## 1
Amino acid sequence: MIHLKNLSKTYSTEEVETTAVNDISLEVKEGEFLAIMGPSGCGKSTLLNIIGLLDSFDTGSYSFLEKEMFGLKERDRAMFRKQNIGFVFQNFNLIDELSVYENIELPLVYNKIGKADRKIRVEEAMERLNISHRSKHYPQQLSGGQQQRVAVARALVNRPRLILADEPTGNLDSKNGNEVLELMTELNTQGATIIMVTHSSYDAGFSSKIITLRDGIIVGEKVNQRQIEII
Ligand code: ADP
Ligand code: ADP
C-alpha cells in the first residue's frame, strides 16, 4: 500500500537546517498496524504527515496505492487524502463551530456523498462510538474522551483504507485511551491499515509492527507478537 524509498525532508529556517526525515525507506502492507516510536523531535510527526499527504518531501519517492506522490500538486494530493485516509490527532482537531454531527459529517461532504447517505453513515458512526446522545453538542461541551470519540468517528465515517493516528491517547486517561486503542485494533481486524505515532510502549503493544526513529532515521524494526496472537 505504501512504499517509501530514500525519502528525505529538511526544514530550513534562517538559522538552522533540520533534516527531519533522513533517507527513509519503508514498506507498509495493506492490513498492517504499524507503530512509529522514538524520542521527541526524531521526525515521527513529519513522517506521518508525509504519509498522510498533508506535507510534501524533498527527495526520494513515495508510492501510495501504486501511484507516485512525488511532485503531485496539492489539489491532487488532497483528493487522494480525502478519499483514502482518516486522521486522529492528539488534540482531537475538531472544528469548534460545528456540532458533533457536523464534525463527523465533514469527510462525507468533502467526498460529495448525498445527504440521505450521509445521515445513515453519521448515525452509524455515532452509535459505534457511543456518542449519539451528544450529536447536537459542540466540541467544547464535551469531555476529552468524548471529543476523541468524535474524532475517531470522523476518521472512520468515510471507511478509509488507511487511518493515521498521531499520539491519539496523549490527552486521554487510561480508560479512554484504552477505548481508542481497542477501537483501532477492531478497525484493523476489519481491514483498515493503521499507522500510529506514539512514545508509549504500552500503546505500541497494540500494533503488529513497531519501527523506531532517531534523528530522522529508522534505527529499529520489529514484528509485534501480541497482535499476531489476536489475529
Ligand atoms: P516528532 O514528531 O518525533 O517529535 P517532528 O517530526 O515533529 O518530530 O520534528 C522533527 C524535527 O523537525 C525536529 O527537530 C523539529 O524541531 C523539526 N521541525 C518540525 N516541524 C518543523 C517546522 N515546521 N519548521 C522547522 N523545523 C521543524
Ligand atoms: P466520557 O468518559 O463518557 O467521555 P466523562 O466521564 O469524562 O465522559 O464525563 C462525564 C460527563 O460530564 C459527561 O456526560 C460529559 O458530557 C460531561 N462533561 C465533561 N466535561 C464537560 C465539559 N467541559 N462541559 C460540559 N460537560 C462536560
## 2
Amino acid sequence: MVRHTATSVVTIERFIIEQERQFPEATGELSGILYDIALAAKMIANKVRSAGLADILGAQGTDNVQGEAQQKLDVLSNEIIVKAMDHGGRLCAMASEEEPDIIPIPEGFRCGKYVLLFDPLDGSSNIDVNVPVGTIFSVMRKITNGRHGTLEDMLQPGRRQVAAGYVIYGSSTMLVYTTGQGAHGFTLDPSIGEFLLSHPDIKIPNTGKFLSVNDSYEQHWSDEVKTLMRHYRGLEGGSKPLSVRYVGSLVADFHRNLLAGGVFAYPAHAKSPKGKLRLLYEANPLAFIVEQAGGCASTGHCRILDVQPEELHERTPLYIGSKHEVELANDILAGNV
Ligand code: AHG
Ligand code: MN
Ligand code: MN
Ligand code: MN
C-alpha cells in the first residue's frame, strides 16, 4: 500500500482507488458506496454549517421509532443519504436510525450486493446550540438470496462489516473510515469541496487521557459500574484520574478519544437495561474503527463486534476507546477487580 504522510495532497477518491487496487477481485462497488457517502457528507455539512440561517433548526414535530423527537436536521440528513445512495446500484437495502423498517431500493433501480446502515445525524440535541454533530455508517455484504436486501442481511454481527466510518461536523468537517486496512481520516477543504487525507492510519493511545460519561445516571448504575467509575476517576486502584470530557454527541466524544486517548462509557442502567446507544449503526461502526486503530469496544461483557443482533434498533451498553480503559471495564464488570 502506498504510504502517505499528512502533507501529501491525496483526495479521498484517490485513496479509495489505491486501496481497491490491492484487491484484484474488487468490482469497485464498495468504492462506489464510499464515494457516494463522501458526497452525502458534503451535502449534510453544507446544511449543518448554515443551519442557523435557514429554517432547519429545531424539532420536526414528529417522533422516530426510538421515541425521540426528530430534529429537522435529523430528517433532512436522512433524506440526503437515502437520495444519494438509493440509485447507485451497489446497495440492496438500507436502514436508518430515523426509519422504523429497512429502506428498500426503489423499483427500476439495480440492486447491488451490500447493505448500508446509518445514523444520519448523531448528537441531534446539540444542533441548536452549535455543538459538533456527526453521521455514522456501516456497510455489510448481503447474505441472503433474492434481489432485495432483507432484515436478515442487516442482523449480522459487527465483525461482518466490510466498511464503516463517521463524519464529524466540528471546527472542520472530517470523514474517518475503514475497510479493514487501518482507519484513515480526511478533512474537507471547503475551498475546493474535496476531502483530503489528513490523518493516515490513525492509532489510538493504549492508555487514555479522557473519560466521556454522563454521570447524571450514577444513581441507576450497578455497584460494578460505580466501582469502575471510581477507578477511572483515580479514587480507587491507584491510576491517574482521567479528565472528564462529555459533549453529548457520541461522534464528537469518540473522535477526541480516538485521537488523544480515552474511553467513552454509556453503561446499562436500571432505566435503560440495554444501554442507550444503538448496536447496528452507532456501536458497531465505531467499534470497527477503534479496533483498526488499536483500541477496543465492549458491552462490558463481550466484544461489541461479536454481538449477534436480534432487532434492527437494538441498544447496547458501550465502553469504547483506549485498550487499557476498556479492558479495565471488562475486568471490573466481570467482578475480577
Ligand atoms: P442521536 O442524536 O443520533 O439520537 O444520538 C444521541 C446519542 C449520542 O450521540 C450521545 O452520546 C448520547 O445520545 C447522549 O445521551 P445522553 O443525553 O443520555 O447523555
Ligand atoms: Mn436520535
Ligand atoms: Mn446517534
Ligand atoms: Mn441520530
